[in-house]
Automatic annotation (TrEMBL):
Pfam families: AAA_3, AAA_lid_2
Every ChlI/MoxR AAA lid domain range: 245-308
Protein known as: Magnesium chelatase
Gene Ontology molecular-function annotations: ATP binding; ATP hydrolysis activity
Highest classification ranks of the organism: Bacteria, Pseudomonadati, Bacteroidota, Chitinophagia, Chitinophagales
Stored Gene3D superfamilies: Magnesium chelatase subunit I, C-Terminal domain, P-loop containing nucleotide triphosphate hydrolases
Positions of the ATPase AAA-3 domain: 44-180
Amino acid sequence: MEQSIAIEQALQNIQLLIGNIEKVIRGKRPQIELILTALLAKGHILMEDNPGTGKTVMAKTLAHSIAGKQHNSEVNFKRIQFTPDLLPMDLIGSHIFDDVHKEFVFKKGPLFCNVLLADEINRASPKVQSALLECMAENQITIGETTYPLEQLFFTIATQNPVEMEGTYPLPAAQLDRFYLKIYFGYVDEATELDIYKDYLGIQNNLEHTQQVLNMEDILLLQQQAQQVHLHDELTIAVRNIVSETRKHPDIVLGASTRSGITFLKCLKAFALVQGRTFVTEDDLQLITPAVLDHRLIYRNKEAKQKALASILNKEMERLSKLKLSH
């Protein structure tokens, strides 16, 4: 009985958070759901699109919707604008000499936060991008011989412009693998865009006065509940099959890793919870496969990128449809 009440509360909290975000971000329900999927799976998300589509505002709205540890405070939100002249110490922090105690003390950088917005991450050099590897994978930062743990709630939302644009560096494979999901934010439809134009002052006001509808403890509890979502054994096998097939497909040069498969399972459970369910369905698998795997694969050419993963997924969906799973 208590468990069912807890699940009901969890589903209400998720809808509360989505509704609060949608006061500012219009016409982006699928993208919002995937961002929350990454958050509840204890992962990080990469958003790619042209400037001006709302990626940065999305990150700010999410952070402003969550209350911090102190009464009436927000979670610790930091925004880093990535530029070609950025250095790793600008993210991690550095040792500064303390005149009083006559010793060097470590001054923490912006990575020590709850919600990090890494804006235009691919405008910085790979050396700077590598500063994110340890904190995103292990929730800690090592400086010399000292390891500093990060906050229990640490969520990175990175935005990037298409690689074809001037002044961008492609993210290395190791960095891409740290992102649980990669989504394309995209432009809104014409009707929604007109609605935004008519009410842009109201939207700006909503952003400035975003309500804190959940607190950090609520988010941490949702992360725990996402882990308890039921996943049918056949769906676990389906994930194994899809990941394995990416390594064998003739149009894929670099397939998905075992870590990718574990990430896939976590995202499936979190996505099901965001959808208001305590079990994963075949539709969940079909919907999130591209967002989980596409950015981890290296294809032979652009034509292969459009077809290879889709053909692997379709084959597995056909197999599952014959089984007629009961959840």
